[in-house]
Design goal:
mainly alpha, Serine Threonine Protein Phosphatase 5, Tetratricopeptide repeat, 3 domains, 32 helices, globular
């Protein structure tokens, strides 16, 4: 019998999510593992390896981007190699890609369907770049998808349980093969996505591309009815992207939408009686909006040297927030000032802890859990912000974050109270996450002063990590929740506060290694959230170049990852620094168009439905326009 500390919470979470989605064990396991093995996972008797964990989640419609993942040295090495392969394909580095794929084939288990599927998919992505024929690509994508979805070419996908990666492979197979029923298959894939329980991100990574391929087929019909359908489909797909704050195939959809609007406009002139004046105005407004967004995307991608056109599906395979267990234990132990003997006492031998820290040993999970607990960390190998077995909790927590960001205070309190009744508040990490949110809400609503908030945030951090340890100089590993506690302090600190520089230095140390290794992309959501505050404070202090460097990293990595959420903030920090340098007569080597950049900030905030920030940027834009008008009048 397994108790909650010995069994794998992940399995219980998967079982509850599966039942919530009304998916059978047979559907979930097909092509991935045996039914009996899935049963062992769900009972918590065994933890699947990382790729299988992620595929089970994505088949159930959940994108595993909110997890912190801890891997032993072998799995971590393979994970790192996978990310290097993805990066080299995105950056069009042919020799490096060939070398990395050869190395990966030697290291991975090609009998494992997920491993083999990854290799075949990456080879197909690269061959497409090299101009391989459609027929050859169809064969490659068919072989890749059949690793986990056997017989896909012979049956409907409706009723299956598919991940976003599998849907994409089916879509590519249909796109490149010769078929008289291509359009019908796209319609079927689109129906599958719409009827699935995919979360917003999974839908944004699959639906817009499906719509794009379908619209390319519909355009061949060259008639008014097809154009109207294309317009509606593009509008729907763009709304899906807005829901998730992503931009996969946004540029392509905007271009199709503009083509259709212009065609409809020409037909309207010929068929004036069939077009009302209101309809014409709506088309014109949609055209202006599309042109603005298209131009903004093209200009930013060009400025930051990122391709605007979608040319691969690598974004579906990036595994975020992954850490090596041995490194985490070694760094955390040193942060807390513990000797190896103190850490391992009553848990394992001194020899074992030494081998773990040197990444020479794949050790028992129970030993790692107990070491994590002694290091004031959650015991899970794969954990979310809240440690829970209930999928509803994660949905509520995501809603809570959004409501706080949008200052919807009337709804925050109710969600907080509901969450407290659903999670184990005796777990320090859960208490930390919810009380941090409560403090943010109370600060925004005026219930806490800045000073009281600072003290409260420090107390919340110290549920798992002493403040002095977190801000001491040196190599660091902190959980995302601990990092966010420090970031929340930095947001409201004045530069007169002697603690501000220490907190900023601590946050910079956390992300120094990803910056140096050029792998910020696998931490982009956390990096952008945390470091946007750092670069803002550095700008306030007058360290403009340091601040600019961070802003540019954020924007470039967001563009590469097709994430739009943080671009406006990074852009605003760049233009604010630029204006300050001009005021202080500091030489400026890169000119910025302030009104254009602020217009982009308004545009991107509106696209992501961030009403608070849209109004904020619009106010700043209007003030600068009024200032220029007054000066020109004089």
């Amino acid at each position: 019998m397994f108790d909650r500390y010995e069994s794998e919470r992940f399995g219980t979470y998967i079982a509850r999510l599966r039942r919530k989605r009304n998916v059978s064990m047979e559907q979930l396991s097909e092509g991935l593992c045996s039914l009996s093995m899935l049963g062992r996972f769900e009972k918590g008797e065994r933890l699947p390896e990382k790729q299988l964990r992620d595929r089970l989640l994505t088949r159930l419609g959940e994108t595993p981007i909110v997890y912190e993942n801890y891997l032993d040295t072998d799995e971590y090495t393979q994970w790192k190699l996978r990310q290097q392969i993805l990066e080299s394909i995105v950056d069009w580095k042919r020799d490096k890609t060939d070398t990395l794929l050869t190395a990966y084939r030697k290291q991975c288990d090609m009998e494992n369907p997920l491993e083999k599927q990854f290799v075949l998919t990456m080879e197909a992505q690269w061959k497409r770049r090299e101009g391989t024929t459609a027929a050859e690509l169809a064969v490659m994508f068919e072989e890749a998808v059949k690793q986990t979805v056997p017989g896909v070419e012979k049956k409907s996908i409706i009723g299956m349980c598919l991940s976003m990666q599998e849907i994409d492979l089916i879509l590519e197979y249909e796109h490149y093969r010769i078929s008289a029923s291509k359009q019908a298959k796209y319609e079927e894939i689109m129906q599958y996505i719409l009827e699935s329980d995919f979360d917003a991100v999974s839908r944004a990574k699959t639906y817009p591309k499906t719509v794009y391929y379908l619209c390319l087929e519909l355009e061949k019909e060259n008639n008014r009815e097809a154009d109207r359908r294309i317009l509606n489909l593009c509008n729907d797909a763009i709304e899906v992207l807005r829901d998730a704050c992503y931009m996969c195939y946004l540029w392509e959809l905007l271009r199709i939408r503009l083509r259709v609007i212009k065609r409809l406009g020409k037909r309207t002139m010929a068929e004036a009686k069939r077009q009302t004046e209101l309809e014409a105005e709506q088309l014109l407004e949609l055209q202006k909006e599309s042109e603005k967004l298209l131009k903004a995307l093209e200009n930013l991608h060009k400025e930051f040297d990122v391709r605007v056109a979608m040319s691969d599906s690598c974004y579906l395979y990036v595994e975020k927030e992954v850490y090596c267990i041995g490194d985490v234990i070694r760094i955390r132990r040193k942060m807390l000032g513990l000797s190896r003997a103190q850490l391992c006492e009553g848990i394992c031998s001194l020899k074992t802890i030494g081998r773990i820290e040197r990444n020479q040993l794949k050790t028992q999970r129970q030993i790692v859990r107990e070491l994590f607990e002694r290091l004031h960390m959650s015991r899970e190998y794969q954990r979310m912000e809240l440690v829970t077995e209930n999928p509803v909790v994660q949905e509520l927590f995501a809603e809570l974050r959004w409501r706080i960001n949008e200052r919807e205070h009337d709804k925050v309190q109710a969600i907080l109270e509901e969450l407290k009744g659903m999670v184990e508040m005796e777990l320090p990490s859960n208490k930390q996450a919810l009380e941090r949110m409560m403090a943010a809400y109370e600060l925004q609503s005026g219930k806490l002063s800045k000073e009281a908030y600072m003290q409260r945030m420090r107390e919340v951090l110290e549920y798992t990590l002493p403040y002095k340890v977190a801000t001491a100089h040196g190599e660091k590993y902190m959980t995302n929740e601990e990092i966010t506690c420090i970031q929340n302090m930095v947001i409201i600190m004045d530069w007169e506060n002697p603690e501000l520089e220490k907190c900023i230095a601590a946050l910079e140390e956390v992300y120094r290694q990803p910056e140096e290794e050029d792998c910020v992309g696998v931490h982009i959501c956390m990096y952008a959230t945390i470091m946007s505050v750092v670069d803002s404070q550095l700008g306030n202090k007058g360290e403009y170049e340091r601040s600019d460097t961070i802003s540019k990293i954020i924007i470039r990595e967001c563009l590469k990852s097709h994430v739009i959420t943080y671009i406006a903030n990074g852009l605003y920090n760049l233009l604010w620094n630029y204006e300050q340098k001009e005021k202080e007569h500091i030489p400026v080597w890169e000119k910025r168009n302030v009104l254009r950049d602020l217009g982009y900030c308004v545009l991107f905030s509106r696209f992501t439905r961030q009403k608070f920030w849209e109004a904020n940027y619009k106010d700043k834009l209007n003030k600068r326009i009024n200032f220029l008008n007054r000066n020109n009048g004089e």
